[in-house]
Amino acid sequence: MLAGAAIGVLSSLVAIGGGLLSVPFLTLCRVKLQRAIGTAAAIGFPIALAGTAGYIVNGYMQPENLPDHSLGYVYLPAVAWLVAASTLTAPLGAKMTHSAKAAVLRACFVVLLYGLGIKMLFHIAA
Fold first, then answer.
1. In this prediction, what percent of the chain has a pLDDT beyond 70?
2. What is the DSSP letter of 30?
C-alpha cells in the first residue's frame, strides 16, 4: 500500500501516468514484464481519476484564469480527444504487448523513460 500511495502521489505531482512508475516497481518485484504492463494499465485508471479530481478541486479555487470549457484545471475538449484516442489504440497496444518479446518491451520502456526524463530536465532548465 505504501508503494501504491507513493506512486500515485508522485504520478499526480509530475503529471505522468502511474504506469511509468508502476512497471519498474512491479518488475523489481519479479512480475513478468507483460503482466506488469497490463497491471499498470489497470491501476493507471484509478490513479488518473484521483489526479483528475485533485486538478478539478484545485482549479475551482482560481476560475478567472481558466479557458472556457474547463472543469477546474481540466480542459474538457482535451479529455474528449484523449478518451477517443485511448479507446481506439488500447486494444492495439494490448495486442502488441502480448506478442512482443520482453527484451524489446524493456528497451522501449527504457527509451520512453529516458525521453521523458530529458524532457522534464529541459522544461526545468527553461
1. 98
2. T
